[in-house]
Amino acid sequence: MTRQSRMVRKRSHAGKCAAGVWPIMKVLRRPHTGTLPSRMKRLSALLLLALAACGTTPPPSAVIVPVEPEIASAPAEVFASAPAADVPAAGPLRAGIIAAAIREWEYFGQQTVVISDGEESIPHMGIWEDEDPEHSARINQYWRSVGSARLSGYDCREPWSAAFISWVMQQAGVAKSLFPPAGAHRSYLNHVLAGADKPEALLRPHPIRQYQPRPGDLLCTTRGRNPPDEAPETLPVSLAMPLHCDIVVARDGQLLEVIGGNVRNSVSKTILTLSPEGYVQFSRLRPWFLIIENRLD
């Protein structure tokens, strides 16, 4: 089976081998500027969103061997783009979180998603979860961080975005008592929400309209086929619905860049536009509602 025919059968975010849990909006295809093979350049981004199934099964000879990647230091430009008053210098833990997320995004081919004016475009497609044994095995590393060693990128019905976040936190050296690794976002978010009133809390939740995000924070959204009409003004006591979180890696004026796993079948960077005041704007395309402020070091 050719790579192109496999890609037509890909699924969208969060392990649903169908159209995906976020609504399919009009997709704007921008020119591809990367170095992927020419046949990738000719693929419409619509194929990425209108997905039917996970395209492959693991080859019999594929052996998943976890290999710990080298984590680079956070690039200086991550914090150089925003005013110093808005984005203070990162300590080693927060910088490590950003560096680990960026490195994984680069490893998966730098897939980029742009959300603007109620539409989603994918100007650069990267490498997908089940594209080859190597990248499937990397997702197995994420799963191992939450105690699910049998899963890999070939298990396309299993949403791995929370495992990705947990793995990044572990790579950065964040204590499990602060951020308990989990295969579902609600597990660690409920841990954070339980300590929201503690002045000494190092991970502090905020509604999106009450806090301006900065690199190292988490930006969280609900997911499903029936998104809410607006973001809540108060914090929930606890969470039980399907969720997704991304790691904020850069802020440049009104542009915010976040990286997350299992976003359109890859580790993707999503670029969104903040309000003129610097707050995340609610969108039914991505119903963001919660920011976890990172006060580590």
**What is the residue-mean pLDDT, rounded to a whole number?**
78
What's the gyration radius in Å? 18 Å
* Coarse structural class: alpha+beta
Strand order of the largest sheet: 1-3-2-8-7-6-5-9-4
Element order, helices and strands?
HEHHHHEEHHHEEEEEE
N-end to C-end Cα span? 50 Å
Number of helices: 8
The total strand number stands at: 9
Helix content: 10-25%
Residue stretches low in confidence (pLDDT < 50, at least 5 long) are 1-21, 23-88
**Strand portion:** 15-25%
Name the overall outline.
Answer: globular
In this structure, how is the largest beta sheet organized? 9 strands, mixed
**Into how many domains do the coordinates divide?**
1
Describe the structure.
The protein has 297 residues and is an alpha+beta fold. It has one domain. Helix content is 23%, strand content 20%. The protein has a nine-stranded mixed sheet. It starts with a helix and ends with a strand.
